Amino acid sequence: MTQAKGRGFWERVVHEVEVGATQAAIAGRYNVNVSTVGYWVRRLRKESQAAPSSAALAVAPTLLPVRIKGTERRHFGVVLPAGRVEFEEGTDPNYVVAVVRALAAC
């Protein structure tokens, strides 16, 4: 009889898939069905898209208006706990927000 795996186990498995391992390789490593790995990947992705984590909401960035004078291209940075991310002047603010949220979730 196989032992039931808990949600924590599947979150770790899906994380390995998200960082680049194939579902087949992970299934072999943990001796589980590939279809079950696929199910949990779909399920956890759907859940994460439906309800952003409280950690992501807690660090939601606030964008401030910036006026840059001159003709040369300038950069601006966003400081996160893991470091600083640089963007070029004219970068779409929605893109900046998406990158910051994705990095904050790591």
Write the layout of secondary structure elements.
Layout: H1 7-18, H2 23-30, H3 34-50, H4 54-58, E1 75-80, E2 83-88, H5 93-104
Antiparallel strand pairs: 1-2
Helix pairs in contact: 1-3, 2-3
Describe this structure in words.
It is built from five helices and two strands. The radius of gyration is 19 Å and the shape is elongated. β1 and β2 (about 85-90) form a beta hairpin. α2 (about 25-30) packs across α3 (about 35-50). It starts with 6 loop residues before the first helix and ends with a helix. The protein is mainly alpha-helical.
Assembly type of the shown chains? single chain
Compute the number of strand runs. 2
Query: Major beta sheet, specifics?
Result: 2 strands, antiparallel
Strand order of the largest sheet: 1-2
Tell me the radius of gyration: 19 Å
Query: What level of helicity do the residues show?
Result: 40-55%
Give the mean pLDDT. 81
What is the succession of H and E elements?
HHHHEEH
Q: What is the end-to-end distance? A: 36 Å
**Low-confidence stretches at least 5 residues in length (pLDDT < 50)?**
none
* Tertiary shape: elongated
Supply the number of helical segments: 5
Beta-strand percent range: 5-15%
Class per helix and strand makeup: mainly alpha
Describe what is shown at a glance.
The chain is mainly alpha-helical and 106 residues long.
What are the salient characteristics of this protein?
106 residues, mainly alpha, two-stranded antiparallel ribbon, 5 helices, 2 strands, 51% helix, elongated
